[in-house]
Amino acid sequence: MTGRGAILLGMGLGALWAIAFVTLAIFAAPVSVGPGTGIALALAVAAMPLAAAIGVLAAHRFRDPDDLAGATLTKDAARIDQAVLTNGVEQTVLAMLVWPAFVLAWGGGAVIMLAVGFTVSRFAFWIGYRIHPTLRAFGFAGGFYGTLLAGAAAVLALLACGLPGAA
Length: 167
Known about the structure:
Number of strands: 0
Largest sheet: none
Helix content: over 70%
Strand content: under 5%
Order of helices and strands: HHHHH
């Protein structure tokens, strides 16, 4: 399968993955930690794909004399890695804006589990960028939809239970 069909399949599978990992995070987080520890560990986990992409790009620039000076990347693989890094930063910033509410609503263990699902999605996106559009769409949708779903779940839970610290 290629083209739009492959992308739609990947997006659908990514949406199912997002629903699964957010649901597991909320109802079956395997660890119980405080919100501060949870958010700290979640952010550290989410940083792994970014750190890997930065390292791969740095190694490429070091090996390629045309790219060593920091000019426009000349190799397709490096351009892919740069696109993955850019999209990864965008999705990670969005997740960082949502996760504090999620940790307040569902706890530290839940946000760690959420970060693991997000990170798996980011690596699937990167691998998919190189091998098949279905996997790329799966990774993008899993991370993006997971963040949106987590945000909605957090807002609804906090509104339903009363906002922490509200008079």
